[in-house]
Amino acid sequence: MAEGAVPRLYDRLYDRLWDSGVLNAGAITWRELGAYFTSPIGYVVAAVLVIPVSLLGYLAYLAPTPVPISMQRVFQLVAFLMVFLVPLYTMRLLAEERRSDTLELLLTSPVRDWEVVLGKWLAAFVFYLATVAFTVVYVVLISIYTPGQARASVLGLQLTLPAVDYGSIVAGYVGLVLVGAAWTAIGLFASSLTGNQIIAAVVGIGVLVCFEYLFGVVAGYAGGAGTIGSVLGYLDASSHADTLWQGRILLRDVVYFVTLTLGALFVTARVLESRRWRA
After folding, report:
1. What mean pLDDT value characterizes the chain?
2. Mean pLDDT throughout 84-89?
Protein backbone atom coordinates (compact mmCIF):
# COMPACT_ATOMS: atom_id res chain seq x y z
CA MET A 1 0.00 0.00 0.00
CA ALA A 2 1.36 3.42 -0.97
CA GLU A 3 2.73 5.66 1.73
CA GLY A 4 0.02 7.92 3.09
CA ALA A 5 -2.81 5.69 1.85
CA VAL A 6 -3.72 4.50 5.35
CA PRO A 7 -4.02 8.02 6.83
CA ARG A 8 -6.16 9.09 3.86
CA LEU A 9 -8.38 6.04 4.30
CA TYR A 10 -8.70 6.81 8.00
CA ASP A 11 -9.58 10.43 7.24
CA ARG A 12 -12.25 9.39 4.75
CA LEU A 13 -13.72 6.92 7.23
CA TYR A 14 -13.74 9.56 9.95
CA ASP A 15 -15.45 12.05 7.63
CA ARG A 16 -18.08 9.47 6.73
CA LEU A 17 -18.77 8.72 10.39
CA TRP A 18 -18.91 12.43 11.20
CA ASP A 19 -21.31 13.15 8.36
CA SER A 20 -23.53 10.23 9.34
CA GLY A 21 -23.86 11.54 12.91
CA VAL A 22 -22.58 8.33 14.48
CA LEU A 23 -19.75 10.09 16.32
CA ASN A 24 -21.99 12.74 17.87
CA ALA A 25 -24.64 10.22 18.86
CA GLY A 26 -21.97 7.92 20.28
CA ALA A 27 -20.44 10.71 22.35
CA ILE A 28 -23.85 11.60 23.79
CA THR A 29 -24.56 7.94 24.53
CA TRP A 30 -21.23 7.52 26.32
CA ARG A 31 -21.80 10.64 28.42
CA GLU A 32 -25.30 9.58 29.46
CA LEU A 33 -24.19 6.04 30.26
CA GLY A 34 -21.52 7.46 32.53
CA ALA A 35 -24.20 9.47 34.31
CA TYR A 36 -26.37 6.36 34.77
CA PHE A 37 -23.63 4.20 36.24
CA THR A 38 -22.22 6.91 38.52
CA SER A 39 -25.48 8.33 39.90
CA PRO A 40 -27.64 6.85 42.69
CA ILE A 41 -30.80 6.82 40.55
CA GLY A 42 -29.41 4.13 38.28
CA TYR A 43 -28.65 1.77 41.16
CA VAL A 44 -31.96 2.54 42.90
CA VAL A 45 -33.90 1.67 39.75
CA ALA A 46 -31.88 -1.52 39.29
CA ALA A 47 -32.51 -2.52 42.92
CA VAL A 48 -36.25 -1.87 42.63
CA LEU A 49 -36.29 -4.28 39.68
CA VAL A 50 -33.95 -6.94 41.06
CA ILE A 51 -35.55 -7.30 44.50
CA PRO A 52 -39.15 -8.11 43.41
CA VAL A 53 -38.00 -10.44 40.64
CA SER A 54 -35.71 -12.25 43.11
CA LEU A 55 -38.57 -12.53 45.61
CA LEU A 56 -40.69 -14.16 42.90
CA GLY A 57 -38.50 -17.25 42.97
CA TYR A 58 -38.04 -17.22 46.75
CA LEU A 59 -41.78 -16.98 47.54
CA ALA A 60 -42.56 -19.72 45.03
CA TYR A 61 -40.09 -21.96 46.86
CA LEU A 62 -41.69 -21.17 50.26
CA ALA A 63 -45.23 -21.89 49.05
CA PRO A 64 -46.99 -24.91 50.67
CA THR A 65 -47.06 -26.47 47.24
CA PRO A 66 -43.87 -25.28 45.50
CA VAL A 67 -44.64 -23.82 42.10
CA PRO A 68 -41.98 -24.21 39.41
CA ILE A 69 -40.76 -20.83 38.23
CA SER A 70 -41.38 -20.21 34.56
CA MET A 71 -39.64 -17.54 32.56
CA GLN A 72 -43.06 -16.36 31.40
CA ARG A 73 -43.81 -15.15 34.95
CA VAL A 74 -40.41 -13.47 35.12
CA PHE A 75 -40.97 -11.66 31.82
CA GLN A 76 -44.44 -10.51 32.88
CA LEU A 77 -43.17 -9.16 36.20
CA VAL A 78 -40.27 -7.32 34.55
CA ALA A 79 -42.63 -5.78 31.98
CA PHE A 80 -45.01 -4.66 34.74
CA LEU A 81 -42.25 -3.05 36.80
CA MET A 82 -40.71 -1.33 33.78
CA VAL A 83 -43.93 0.61 33.14
CA PHE A 84 -43.08 2.57 36.29
CA LEU A 85 -39.28 2.32 36.35
CA VAL A 86 -38.40 3.36 32.80
CA PRO A 87 -39.92 6.87 33.15
CA LEU A 88 -37.99 7.31 36.39
CA TYR A 89 -34.60 6.90 34.74
CA THR A 90 -35.51 8.62 31.47
CA MET A 91 -37.10 11.66 33.13
CA ARG A 92 -33.80 13.52 33.42
CA LEU A 93 -32.51 12.92 29.89
CA LEU A 94 -33.95 16.09 28.36
CA ALA A 95 -35.87 17.63 31.27
CA GLU A 96 -32.65 18.26 33.19
CA GLU A 97 -31.08 19.81 30.10
CA ARG A 98 -34.05 22.16 29.79
CA ARG A 99 -34.03 23.07 33.47
CA SER A 100 -30.32 23.92 33.47
CA ASP A 101 -30.55 25.74 30.11
CA THR A 102 -27.93 23.44 28.60
CA LEU A 103 -30.40 22.12 26.03
CA GLU A 104 -30.30 25.43 24.15
CA LEU A 105 -26.50 25.26 24.10
CA LEU A 106 -26.68 21.71 22.80
CA LEU A 107 -29.21 22.61 20.11
CA THR A 108 -27.21 25.61 18.91
CA SER A 109 -24.06 23.47 18.58
CA PRO A 110 -23.28 21.58 15.35
CA VAL A 111 -25.32 18.59 16.53
CA ARG A 112 -28.46 17.53 14.72
CA ASP A 113 -31.71 16.91 16.58
CA TRP A 114 -31.84 13.23 15.69
CA GLU A 115 -28.27 12.77 16.96
CA VAL A 116 -29.30 14.11 20.37
CA VAL A 117 -32.40 11.92 20.42
CA LEU A 118 -30.58 8.80 19.23
CA GLY A 119 -27.67 9.27 21.64
CA LYS A 120 -29.87 9.74 24.69
CA TRP A 121 -32.25 6.95 23.71
CA LEU A 122 -29.36 4.51 23.16
CA ALA A 123 -27.98 5.29 26.61
CA ALA A 124 -31.35 4.64 28.25
CA PHE A 125 -31.86 1.48 26.19
CA VAL A 126 -28.43 0.07 27.05
CA PHE A 127 -29.07 0.79 30.72
CA TYR A 128 -32.41 -0.99 30.42
CA LEU A 129 -30.70 -4.04 28.90
CA ALA A 130 -28.12 -4.00 31.69
CA THR A 131 -30.83 -4.00 34.37
CA VAL A 132 -32.77 -6.91 32.87
CA ALA A 133 -29.65 -8.96 32.09
CA PHE A 134 -29.64 -10.42 35.61
CA THR A 135 -32.76 -12.45 34.73
CA VAL A 136 -30.44 -14.80 32.84
CA VAL A 137 -29.74 -16.28 36.29
CA TYR A 138 -33.26 -17.71 36.18
CA VAL A 139 -32.50 -19.41 32.88
CA VAL A 140 -29.47 -21.07 34.45
CA LEU A 141 -31.44 -22.20 37.51
CA ILE A 142 -34.30 -23.53 35.40
CA SER A 143 -31.81 -25.43 33.24
CA ILE A 144 -30.24 -27.01 36.33
CA TYR A 145 -33.37 -27.92 38.28
CA THR A 146 -35.90 -28.73 35.57
CA PRO A 147 -36.55 -32.49 35.74
CA GLY A 148 -36.27 -34.60 32.64
CA GLN A 149 -33.91 -34.58 29.72
CA ALA A 150 -34.15 -34.05 26.00
CA ARG A 151 -31.89 -35.36 23.28
CA ALA A 152 -30.72 -33.24 20.37
CA SER A 153 -28.44 -33.82 17.42
CA VAL A 154 -25.98 -31.03 16.62
CA LEU A 155 -23.57 -31.55 13.70
CA GLY A 156 -24.04 -35.27 14.02
CA LEU A 157 -23.35 -35.27 17.76
CA GLN A 158 -26.00 -36.62 20.11
CA LEU A 159 -26.39 -34.24 23.05
CA THR A 160 -28.41 -34.61 26.23
CA LEU A 161 -30.00 -31.32 27.28
CA PRO A 162 -32.37 -30.22 30.05
CA ALA A 163 -36.04 -30.48 29.11
CA VAL A 164 -36.39 -26.71 28.79
CA ASP A 165 -38.12 -24.89 25.96
CA TYR A 166 -35.27 -22.54 25.09
CA GLY A 167 -37.13 -21.33 22.00
CA SER A 168 -39.83 -19.82 24.21
CA ILE A 169 -37.19 -18.24 26.43
CA VAL A 170 -35.48 -16.64 23.44
CA ALA A 171 -38.85 -15.32 22.25
CA GLY A 172 -39.44 -13.86 25.71
CA TYR A 173 -36.12 -12.04 25.65
CA VAL A 174 -36.92 -10.72 22.18
CA GLY A 175 -40.08 -9.37 23.77
CA LEU A 176 -38.12 -7.69 26.58
CA VAL A 177 -35.84 -6.04 24.02
CA LEU A 178 -38.77 -4.77 21.94
CA VAL A 179 -40.70 -3.55 24.98
CA GLY A 180 -37.61 -1.84 26.38
CA ALA A 181 -36.92 -0.06 23.10
CA ALA A 182 -40.46 1.29 22.95
CA TRP A 183 -40.72 2.22 26.63
CA THR A 184 -37.42 4.10 26.70
CA ALA A 185 -38.40 6.00 23.54
CA ILE A 186 -41.71 7.02 25.13
CA GLY A 187 -39.93 8.00 28.34
CA LEU A 188 -37.52 10.16 26.35
CA PHE A 189 -40.46 11.81 24.60
CA ALA A 190 -42.06 12.63 27.96
CA SER A 191 -38.76 14.12 29.13
CA SER A 192 -38.66 16.40 26.09
CA LEU A 193 -41.97 18.06 26.98
CA THR A 194 -40.99 19.74 30.24
CA GLY A 195 -38.11 21.00 32.32
CA ASN A 196 -39.53 19.37 35.46
CA GLN A 197 -38.30 15.82 36.00
CA ILE A 198 -41.25 14.86 38.22
CA ILE A 199 -43.74 15.99 35.58
CA ALA A 200 -41.76 14.11 32.94
CA ALA A 201 -41.92 10.93 35.03
CA VAL A 202 -45.67 11.31 35.65
CA VAL A 203 -46.36 11.93 31.96
CA GLY A 204 -44.21 8.97 30.97
CA ILE A 205 -45.91 6.64 33.45
CA GLY A 206 -49.32 7.89 32.31
CA VAL A 207 -48.58 7.20 28.65
CA LEU A 208 -47.15 3.74 29.39
CA VAL A 209 -50.13 2.83 31.58
CA CYS A 210 -52.40 3.77 28.68
CA PHE A 211 -50.51 1.51 26.28
CA GLU A 212 -50.04 -1.35 28.74
CA TYR A 213 -53.46 -1.39 30.43
CA LEU A 214 -55.98 1.35 29.60
CA PHE A 215 -56.29 0.78 25.86
CA GLY A 216 -56.91 -2.92 26.42
CA VAL A 217 -59.52 -2.28 29.12
CA VAL A 218 -61.42 0.22 26.98
CA ALA A 219 -61.22 -2.09 23.97
CA GLY A 220 -62.60 -4.89 26.16
CA TYR A 221 -65.56 -2.77 27.23
CA ALA A 222 -66.14 -1.85 23.60
CA GLY A 223 -66.15 -5.54 22.78
CA GLY A 224 -63.58 -5.01 20.06
CA ALA A 225 -66.41 -3.90 17.79
CA GLY A 226 -66.23 -0.87 15.57
CA THR A 227 -63.30 1.21 14.47
CA ILE A 228 -62.49 2.59 17.92
CA GLY A 229 -62.52 -0.84 19.54
CA SER A 230 -60.30 -2.29 16.82
CA VAL A 231 -57.81 0.59 17.00
CA LEU A 232 -57.58 0.49 20.80
CA GLY A 233 -57.26 -3.28 20.68
CA TYR A 234 -54.29 -2.98 18.33
CA LEU A 235 -52.72 -0.21 20.45
CA ASP A 236 -52.93 -2.44 23.53
CA ALA A 237 -49.27 -3.28 24.14
CA SER A 238 -50.01 -6.10 26.57
CA SER A 239 -51.77 -8.15 23.88
CA HIS A 240 -48.66 -7.96 21.69
CA ALA A 241 -46.27 -8.62 24.58
CA ASP A 242 -48.25 -11.59 25.92
CA THR A 243 -47.78 -13.38 22.61
CA LEU A 244 -44.02 -12.97 22.98
CA TRP A 245 -44.06 -14.10 26.63
CA GLN A 246 -45.82 -17.27 25.43
CA GLY A 247 -42.89 -18.01 23.12
CA ARG A 248 -44.34 -16.91 19.78
CA ILE A 249 -42.65 -14.24 17.67
CA LEU A 250 -45.20 -12.85 15.22
CA LEU A 251 -44.40 -10.21 12.63
CA ARG A 252 -47.33 -8.01 13.66
CA ASP A 253 -46.00 -7.80 17.23
CA VAL A 254 -42.48 -6.95 16.09
CA VAL A 255 -43.84 -4.30 13.71
CA TYR A 256 -45.97 -2.85 16.52
CA PHE A 257 -43.09 -2.28 18.93
CA VAL A 258 -40.65 -1.11 16.23
CA THR A 259 -43.24 1.36 14.93
CA LEU A 260 -43.95 2.59 18.45
CA THR A 261 -40.23 3.10 19.07
CA LEU A 262 -39.56 4.93 15.82
CA GLY A 263 -42.72 7.01 16.21
CA ALA A 264 -41.78 8.16 19.71
CA LEU A 265 -38.23 9.02 18.61
CA PHE A 266 -39.54 10.91 15.58
CA VAL A 267 -41.94 12.99 17.67
CA THR A 268 -39.18 13.70 20.20
CA ALA A 269 -36.92 14.96 17.41
CA ARG A 270 -39.73 17.24 16.22
CA VAL A 271 -40.10 18.64 19.76
CA LEU A 272 -36.38 19.44 19.82
CA GLU A 273 -36.61 20.96 16.35
CA SER A 274 -39.32 23.34 17.53
CA ARG A 275 -37.14 24.40 20.46
CA ARG A 276 -34.18 24.91 18.13
CA TRP A 277 -36.20 27.38 16.07
CA ARG A 278 -37.30 29.21 19.22
CA ALA A 279 -33.69 29.25 20.46
Report:
1. 79
2. 92
pLDDT tens track for 234-261: 888 988 999 998 888 999 999 999 999 9
Residue type, 104: E
Q: How far is CA 51 from CA 45, 57, 64, 91, 260, in A?
A: 10, 10, 22, 22, 29
Domain regions of the chain by residue span: 5-278
Q: DSSP per residue over the chain, as a string?
A: --TTHHHHHHHHHHHHHHHHTHHHHHHHHHHHHHHHHHSHHHHHHHHHHHHHHHHHHHHHHHSSS-----HHHHHHHHHHHHHHHHHHHHTHHHHHHHHTTHHHHHHTSS--HHHHHHHHHHHHHHHHHHHHGGGHHHHHHHHHH--SEEEEEETTEEEEEES--HHHHHHHHHHHHHHHHHHHHHHHHHHHT-S-HHHHHHHHHHHHHIIIIIHHHHHHHTTT-HHHHHHHHHH-HHHHHHHHHTT---HHHHHHHHHHHHHHHHHHHHHHHHHHHH-
Distance between alpha carbon 30 and the CA centroid of its chain, in Å? 17
User: CA 24, CA 235: separation in Å to the nearest integer?
Assistant: 33
Residues in CB range of 104: below 8 A, 6 or more apart: 275, 279
Residue 14: band (very low, low, confident or very high) from pLDDT cuts 50, 70, 90? very low
Of the candidates 165, 176, 212, 177, the residue with the CA atom closest to the CA atom of residue 70: 165
